[in-house]
Design brief:
By secondary structure, the protein is an alpha/beta fold. It folds into 2 domains: 45 residues; 140 residues, UDP N-Acetylglucosamine Acyltransferase, domain 1 (3 Solenoid), CATH 2.160.10. Helix 1 crosses helix 3 and helix 2 runs antiparallel to helix 3. The chain is globular, with a radius of gyration of 19 Å. It is built from 3 helices and 22 strands.
Length: 222
Amino acid sequence: MTAHIVKAVHGVRPVEPDSPSEITLARELQGRPRDDVLDIASRHAMGETDLDAQMRRVVWRALARRFGNGVRVGRGAIASHLETFEIGDGVFIGEHAFIQGRVDGRCIIGQHVWIGPQTYLDARDLIIEDYVGWGPGARALGSQHTGQPPDVPIIQTDLEIKPTRIRAWADIGVNAVVLPGVTVGKGAIVGAGAVVTQDVDPFSVVAGVPARFLRWREGHEP
């Protein structure tokens, strides 16, 4: 069967500045009680109209530390502690994605990142650099319980938050899982369903459970 090649869309889409009226509305919302802003978010969370899409952007911009131009927020996408988020230009956040921040955390999403539907991101100490593709259903984990002392339920033990880093140009496959403290190198490819337990070299291809090195990307062999 012959593959069907089509031109890339998201990664080459030019970013148009958001309208001044939209930016002004976001600034006005920043002065309103948080519960009022969240109520507006809920009213437009699942809508399919252009107005719904615009209002999702307005709310995220009002709540985020930084919010770029040309961002698209899919229906049902949720983020907690948006005040710790920095989101670049041209970012796509797919439907029903959940990005979990923390009040004292940090989440940076670079320019032109594509985050697939039904993604889960533990964003308590997460950096996704520019032009990363994040496959639908993939997960980034950023914390785990210490399990100590051993004579109490694990869920009662301290939570250890580790920095998770996805370097520029990397591509994370559908339903892959990146574990806490892992760095995926620049331009690396993580196969679908992989469980990444250790750092991934730049421009390498890994897959499997646990993920293992398969090969270097063409043109990047040592």
